[in-house]
């Protein structure tokens, strides 16, 4: 069941994804 992330982990991943996309938009 290691593949199932905790709510905190999912939130962190989403936050990182959003930050990365925003950085790409600024650089782009």
Automatic annotation (TrEMBL):
TM ranges: none
Gene Ontology molecular function: any one: DNA binding
Biological process per Gene Ontology, one example term: regulation of DNA-templated transcription
Gene3D superfamilies xrefs: 1.10.1660.10
Gene source species: Brunnivagina elsteri CCALA 953
Top-level lineage group: Bacteria
Highest classification ranks of the organism: Bacteria, Bacillati, Cyanobacteriota, Cyanophyceae, Nostocales
Coiled coil: none
PROSITE patterns on file: HTH_MERR_2
HTH merR-type domain residues: 1-28
The protein, known as: IS607 family transposase
């Amino acid at each position: 069941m290691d593949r199932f992330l905790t709510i905190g982990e999912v939130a962190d991943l989403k936050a990182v994804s959003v930050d990365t996309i925003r950085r790409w938009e600024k650089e782009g």
